[in-house]
Design a protein that fits this description.
This protein has 188 residues and is α+β, with helices and mostly antiparallel strands. It is 27% helix and 17% strand. The protein has five helices and five strands; from the N terminus they run H-E-H-E-E-H-E-E-H-H. The chain has helices at 7-21, 56-60, 105-109, 135-142, 159-176; strands spanning 43-46, 66-75, 85-96, 115-118, 132-133. The strands form two sheets. Strands 2-3-5 form a three-stranded antiparallel β-sheet. The longest helix has 18 residues, at 159-176. The radius of gyration is 30 Å and the shape is extended.
Length: 188
């Protein structure tokens, strides 16, 4: 059966009329901030103290939008006769958000939890070159990162915590036991 001429136009007008009769919902954005879902991906915050300059985030980034510069610093020996150690010191950590695709790979591969998702989304710039944010700005966003959700009370305890608790209980029990004198000791 062939379609009736003009049926597509009638369906389109019906959709338009239904839409026109519905109440509009307008968010007054600048005045009223939106309620964001708890796991919103806004920008990436940097917790600088945890960064060891391992460069994993920059190497794994598919867009190559993370720029890291560092230098080596020598730490004197802790004990006499020991050897000096060297460590990386972070000089520059920047993310170019004009290139970033917000995939989160950098956050996932960071072994020291130095990168976090922040729900902050108001970072528009008039010039695209200003979308490269340095570590000072990334650190500011770190304080907007929400706390992790509470653990499920019905979940079983992690193995690491259970093992640590058992060890602590054994040590406490060993220290609490009074030591009995052996035969022949302490008698005069």
């Amino acid at each position: 059966m062939s379609p009736v001429p003009g049926s597509g136009l009638a369906k389109g007008l019906a959709v338009t009329l239904r839409t026109m009769t519905k109440k509009t919902v307008t968010e007054q954005y600048p005045d009223v901030l939106p309620d964001l879902p708890p796991r919103t991906r806004g920008v990436i915050g940097l917790f600088e103290e945890n960064c060891t300059v391992c460069m994993l985030c920059a190497r794994e980034c598919p867009d190559w939008c993370i720029y890291i510069d560092s230098h080596k610093e020598t730490i004197p020996a802790a004990a006499p006769g020991g050897r000096e150690r060297s460590r990386n010191v972070l000089d520059r950590f920047a993310i170019d958000f004009s290139l970033c695709m917000y995939c989160g790979i950098c956050i996932e591969v960071c072994p020291f939890d130095a990168l976090f998702w922040s729900p902050e989304f108001e970072y528009a710039e008039t010039d695209i070159r200003d979308l490269t944010h340095e570590r000072d700005k990334l650190r500011e966003w770190m304080w907007t990162v929400p706390a992790p959700p509470a653990l499920d009370p019905g979940a079983e305890e992690p193995k690491e915590i259970a093992a640590a608790r058992k060890t602590a209980e054994k040590l406490a029990a060993a220290q609490a036991e009074p030591t009995e004198p052996k035969e022949g000791e302490g008698q005069s």
